[in-house]
Amino acid sequence: MAKYFDVHPENPQRRTISSVADSIRSGALVAYPTDSCYALGCRLGSRDGIGRIRSIRNLDDRHHFTLVCQNFAQLGQFVHVDNDVFRAIKAATPGSYTFILPATKEVPRQLLHPKKKTVGVRIPDHVVAQALLAELGEPLLSSTLLLPDEEEPMTQGWEIKERLDHVVDAVVDSGDCGTEPTTVIDFSGGEPEIVRRGAGDITRFE
Question: YrdC-like domain location, by residue (predicted)?
């Protein structure tokens, strides 16, 4: 059974956040809130976590996983960003965007797109996600909590706990965080390519 953590959406309880972070360090797969849907998250190097996310979401090896980062300093360790791209991304973060960029050697091979050697990165604008990232001290390997054959993600923590009780290790509930996933922008070719229209305003990248 998954542990259930009820977290205040504006003033997350430090002890609770610390317990969630400890679970992740120990290899847990968690469902947690972001500024754009709930997400599945685990430690960056967790082969088991990656496999479980693929299984829950029925993903193939071409799926771009996302490294959810606390800030730009952290993001810069895992992707190559030139000056023009840096300015474009900086202006749009934190926010509901995922950016696909060439990965550095810090990113485990199993996370990379098999041909492009790219990975998704984002900096969320969500109090609970930011508190968890600060406590963890490293990015969360993440994927939107969208189940196969369903058009919209689940938005209620209790529902996630009920339906995924035996396939995730913990659920962090801080209330509804919407059903619209991030806007995905591919910068791997230098120019912005809109891969998915989502919660983030696309006009700045058109």
Answer: 14-200
